[in-house]
Amino acid sequence: MSAFDYGFLLGITEELQTSQALNEYLSCRSYVAGFCPSAADAEVFALLGRPPLLHHVHALRWYRHIAALQLGPETPPELCRKGKRLLPPWSPPTGSEPPKLKLYNSLTRNKEVFVPQNGKRVLWYCCGPTVYDASHMGHARSYISFDILRRILMNYFRYDVFYCMNITDIDDKIIRRARQNYLLEQYRQKKPTASQILKDVLTSREVRPFQAKLAETTDPDKKQMLEKLDSAVSAALGPLQGAVESGTSDAVLLNHAQVLLEEAKDLLSDWLDSQFGSQVTENSIFSLLPKYWEGEYHKDMEALNVLPPDVLTRVSEYVPEIVDFVKKIVDNGYGYESNGSVYFDTAKFDSSHNHSYAKLVPEAVGDQKALEEGEGDLSISADRLSEKRSQNDFALWKASKPGEPSWESPWGKGRPGWHIECSAMAGSILGESMDIHGGGFDLRFPHHDNELAQSEAYFENDHWVRYFLHTGHLTIAGCKMSKSLKNFITIKDALAKNTARQLRLAFLMHSWKDTLDYSNNTMESAIQYEKFLNEFFLNVKDILRTPTDITGQFEKWEAAEIDLNKSFYGKRSAVHEALCDNIDTRTALEEMRALVSHSNSYMASRKSARLMPNRTLLQTIAVYLTDMLKTFGAIEGTEAIGFPVGGNGESADLESTVMPYLRVLSDFREGVRKIAREQKGKCLTLQYCVLCVLERLPTVMKLVDRETLLKEKEEKRKRVCLFLFAQMAKLAKMKIPPSEMFRSELDKYSAFDDKGFPTHDSEGKEISKGQIKKLRKLYEVQEKLYNDYLQMSQNGS
């Protein structure tokens, strides 16, 4: 069967007409069929003699096809066999093994490949706050860091994370603080006289427990805190004592007394608690304090853009479950009752098959200081410590003493131990084994080691937690941060100085598991990183707003675009590798910075060449960076590119609303500039801006919020002031004649020559040759400055 029927063309004698007729014929037919020419193909091919004209595209394509198939005067018959040719052999590419997510597991102290127990489902428990005071940056260190890890696991690695967190609202610290606040408030309501306040403060300062605490404290940080408190009280005592002795008016006395009461409130409340704490028995007193501070904690987390947990458990709501949990541990042989309290038998557990005590920090076993801190201030009295079989044992259930809240149990009225709370609540929600347990580094021992022991004693397994993640410490300008030491910055105070995004960027720029120093330098780095990214986003948005038709969006790629695209995919791959490597956000942000730098260089080169950058490529890069920042929790909102503009209460679509008006203003400015160019560079004034036409580039429009503009305006004002001060100082120095510059330094020199050059030092000794050489250089510099000043004065400048 012939591929084509070209017989009618054989009657046409004109070559051009033949080519034209062939082109028209082929324009509506398939003419590349089969693998060898037909007789008609051969005859028409011979008739043409040479390729058709270029504009006869169909005829030219057919001609080239036939020419390629003709191997000689006659085509071998085996090439003219009809039928399908076999596919050539194919082999898959070698490829490379993609990186696997690894997490630093405190149980092994190594980075381990992350393998959830149930497919993509991840069960995660995080130790929450003990709510007795304002949340501080130490809390932010843990909860922002875990929020970043959680978001990356969910939104980048696509795990189905189920996140459970607790609120500790029953604890020794809460009990003591609630009693102290209650007793101090009762004291204030009695409106004591100035003399009574003076007497009580002196008493609380001189007797136990303060003096005992001050004398017994060996920790240098705690001792410094107590000494600082004592100094503040001493400073406030003086004025009141002086006023009492001099017989000052009651109003003045009361004023001094209130100042003293404020400075000594910690000291006084501690003393009141030691005197009357056992009389505070109403359970509601112990619940009001944690309820208030839990509410403040949630407000702080919302302000920091920390996702709420999927499940939140409160100790006060799980007391029955805790009692059952303790009972089973005792039934399994790992706990024992003593004087109404229940303790965990660490020796029995550690000697049991498949069990090991202190998996996280085995070297800390026997650290009595750490163990006592884990038991709580109200639970380390001599009688309590004597109840235990071993000093390493810890309380599962504490018999309540007067002045403590209590619940019924098989062992009498009492309250939960600190460590058992997390075990019972996590076990109730997540079951016998979880994928991830998170907490602060300082919780490893004894808290988390005790959690592991009692939970594995309850479930009789050795894998209650598969991966233990611990966030690093937070220091404040290099110093240890501690709420108990009163060396902390509240989250609200931090947010008054920096935005939630800036705080998060600061955390992202450091490893989540290492110590983070919260300082001016740290925050300045985060602020500059934010500005760097924002400037890039604003520039890309401006480019994308440039009008173009639908086909104009796709431009030919030259070497610069190919290079930038190669960089984009390289950096994206590097970001992925960094996130697989223990979620290394610090390296990821550096790779993103490098990508922005390359993009900025590309835009600058196109601008200098007066060419538009490739819109699609820049948009792809900007969207990727925005998506990564959204993944990290640094951007909230639906904007495809960049940081959202406007604060709370403003329209989310502010940019699309405002930009049309700004475009009109921009076009007007361009018109003004055009007129200025036509007027040979004369400057025209638009509102407060002087439009001096120095270049012919179009206006770049960047929409930023009011606060940012005000901050930049203030920074510019400061820079101008510094510049003016520097210029004034320079001018003042220029006015000094070289003959006078050393004469004022009588503390250094005692004799001078006729040009004011020093010859002897202040002790009357001759200036050495080496010193003369140095002074001569200074003299010559000043001489030049002074001559420049005289020249400026003569010119009237």
TrEMBL record:
Cofactor requirements of the protein: Zn(2+)
EC id: 6.1.1.16
Short name of one Pfam family: tRNA-synt_1e
Keywords: Aminoacyl-tRNA synthetase, ATP-binding, Ligase, Metal-binding, Nucleotide-binding, Protein biosynthesis, Zinc
Location of the tRNA synthetases class I catalytic domain: 114-526
Keyword Aminoacyl-tRNA synthetase recorded: yes
Any one Gene Ontology BP term: cysteinyl-tRNA aminoacylation
Molecular-function GO terms, alphabetical: ATP binding; cysteine-tRNA ligase activity; metal ion binding
Record flagged with keyword Transcription regulation: no
Gene Ontology cellular component list: cytoplasm
HAMAP family named among the record's database cross-references: Cys_tRNA_synth
Name recorded for this polypeptide: cysteine--tRNA ligase
